[in-house]
Amino acid sequence: MEAVNLLSSNRYTEKQIGYLFISVLVNSNSELIRLINNAIKNDLASRNPTFMGLALHCIASVGSREMAEAFAGEIPKTLVAGDTMDSVKQSAALCLLRLYRTSPDLVPMGDWTSRVVHLLNDQHLGVVTAATSLITTLAQKNPEEFKTSVSLAVSRLSRIVTSASTDLQDYTYYFVPAPWLSVKLLRLLQCYPPPEDPAVRGRLTECLETILNKAQEPPKSKKVQHSNAKNAVLFEAISLIIHHDSEPNLLVRACNQLGQFLQHRETNLRYLALESMCTLASSEFSHEAVKTHIETVINALKTERDVSVRQRAVDLLYAMCDRSNAQQIVAEMLSYLETADYSIREEIVLKVAILAEKYAVDYTWYVDTILNLIRIAGDYVSEEVWYRVIQIVINRDDVQGYAAKTVFEALQAPACHENLVKVGGYILGEFGNLIAGDPRSSPLIQFNLLHSKFHLCSVPTRALLLSTYIKFVNLFPEVKATIQDVLRSDSQLKNADVELQQRAVEYLRLSTVASTDILATVLEEMPPFPERESSILAKLKKKKGPSTVTDLEETKRDRSIDVNGGPEPAPASTSAVSTPSPSADLLGLGAAPPAPAVPPASAGGGGLLVDVFSDSASAVAPLAPGSEDNFARFVCKNNGVLFENQLLQIGLKSEFRQNLGRMFIFYGNKTSTQFLNFTPTLICADDLQANLKLQTKPVDPTVDGGAQVQQAVNIECLSDFTEAPVLNLQFRYGGTFQNVSVKLPITLNKFFQPTEMASQDFFQRWKQLSNPQQEVQNIFKAKHPMDTEITKAKIIGFGSALLEEVDPNPANFVGAGIIHTKTTQIGCLLRLEPNLQAQMYRLTLRTSKDTVSQRLCELLSEQF
């Protein structure tokens, strides 16, 4: 209480002690907080700069939500007031920054935002430095509010970099003019794309060129503080050049400058140079310039003593790899792998596997590389790696014989890693017949070679080898008796592991009772796998997180393909659907196959190149290609992937009960770059708004690379409806405005409640609904195979009860249910009559409301 009393004193020393005590010891939940807040308000209103400074420091030190609620509206006024002293402006800007970081929802955006931008023109550099920190943080969340800061920041930066150190004496640090302010201004400019105004853009280019030129000048001091300040500005300028990725000359100059740091005696500079060059390597303008430093990077990999620098060297080799140098880089990484630190071996293995697959011109080289990888670092070869090599061998006829021969030779080594046994067992089981003609690799020798490894392997590998043995029974009848003896042995039939025991029993029985033709059918070769994105790449993205470096091909594709069209890769780590186990899907890639390629659609301004510098949100885009097909697929299901392109994946999970529903929409960022201003909007036509009520919760406007955010939608059906709402997404990706629209699958049948009925009750109700306007009938050609089980599943998924033994014709399907709305309940009966000979259906729907009959008939007809 004494400390609170000191706040009312007019003596500086007493007030300072009071504020110091409160800042350090008073809890934000204290009963005295109201008295403290009143004292702070009095000091802020006093216009005494010393007292105002103490009050602002106290608010920033405590930084509680209660402080934000009390002062978040007052501090901006103090900041932009014309009569506020410079020292108070500095404190106000930093205090507001502190409150925004702790309670961003309590800091109101208003008229002051446009005025605070003009503090970048203030004469006092301390005010400019504090204001730049504040504006940078605010612009990351609200870029549109602060886009006028770009031209002012460029103007201020230009004045700093072109001034002599004597011009800014109070803010010159070891002959470097205002280095902290320069870094903050460069960081602020990274919140925006390159300026559209040619004059501003030209001035910024001049600033960046000046910074690069100064880096080449001899140092004005030998002290480390001088070089640190100078390099801090340089690296931030290079980060801005990389972020804009639009000036080839600057990108190449930045690459050359970084190349000089690769052999610098300072470890931190070598690390930063390698890290920045990784990003430069993904630019089509500077990729070739980065490649010129390949020998220096390889040498760093071999001689560098710091493990973190070696890891960055591996990242850079991976980023600069293309078809011209792939074999050299892969060979160097394999060589380094033998002595690499254990902490980075798994990552190197993943990168070698990705590069070998991606740039393999001759797939025999790919097979050799992966087997070498398993030999050198088998413990670090994940399942995704050997799954992938098997997929590629199965899909490519030209490499199958070579792969069988190579794994057979590799298995002859006295000590083989278990992963090699897995690959060998799988490939010989499929393609061992391709090398069986050679006496040195006869069927019996192949079997004996594999079986010699059997007792050393784990249970999953033994299970795989048992499957290989039964494949051998089909491929090589001459070894059938030998394999049956192994399967019949007590070590197999009485194995303690139930999986091995079951396989041995079933395989032995299959080889005994099945005819040759049945055996050949059951054990035929694996069919080719569908082409999907490599699971190894997905694992690397997940391991590296949002900072994963995008390669050159991906960058070019992102620049040249419209986000609503073109080939779509399979989802990586943001899938909203579950992935089957490896036993169900060999590659562990249980994602949906990519949608077929379609011509680019001009959605909201066209492709990425057309809309690079757009700042204004455009109108709602037309529906994305394939949206109608995806919408139709959700009529009879509630969960799955609704939309996907190379940037974004939208998944749905929903449940409905009577006239209410809840839908969870999952937005997955498939890239390594943040989505900014991420704004999903649900759009309902006027007539739909009267019949369907939607309530949504807002989502975070920033979606990190590789991350997924969720949005909940509460749904209430007020009356029957026909149209569906549209989900519109607008966001910024890499400075480019994106606009995507899809139909949200909220359809009338979602409010179906199934109703069980006996045959007599059904037909009695059927006759009651005999008015012509109550019945809708549609006769149509089957679009899909007429499978009974699939038809039943679709009718149940549609929402009605499937009534068994009701229709006199057992081939027909009968359903019943009630559509629930807020105002009424509508009984529905349906009858589906298939004609297998004609490949036709007749669908009849009877409800108590003609519009409901018509809509349900339209929706269900599309499913067959």
Automatic annotation (TrEMBL):
Q: Keyword Membrane on this protein?
A: yes
Q: Membrane topology for this entry?
A: Peripheral membrane protein
Query: Which GO terms fall under biological process for this protein?
Result: clathrin-dependent endocytosis; intracellular protein transport
Where in this protein does the record put region Disordered? Answer: 547-591
Which stretches are tagged as biased composition: Low complexity?
571-591
Localisation per UniProt entry = Cell membrane; Membrane, Coated pit
Care to name a GO molecular-function term for this sequence?
clathrin adaptor activity
An example of a Gene Ontology cellular component annotation for this protein is: AP-2 adaptor complex
Residues covered by the Clathrin adaptor alpha/beta/gamma-adaptin appendage Ig-like subdomain domain: 632-745
Q: What is this protein's function?
A: Component of the adaptor protein complex 2 (AP-2). Adaptor protein complexes function in protein transport via transport vesicles in different membrane traffic pathways. Adaptor protein complexes are vesicle coat components and appear to be involved in cargo selection and vesicle formation. AP-2 is involved in clathrin-dependent endocytosis in which cargo proteins are incorporated into vesicles surrounded by clathrin (clathrin-coated vesicles, CCVs) which are destined for fusion with the early endosome.
Family, per entry:
Belongs to the adaptor complexes large subunit family.
Q: How does it assemble?
A: Adaptor protein complex 2 (AP-2) is a heterotetramer composed of two large adaptins (alpha-type subunit AP2A1 or AP2A2 and beta-type subunit AP2B1), a medium adaptin (mu-type subunit AP2M1) and a small adaptin (sigma-type subunit AP2S1).
Q: What is this protein called?
A: AP-2 complex subunit alpha
- The primary gene name is Ap2a2
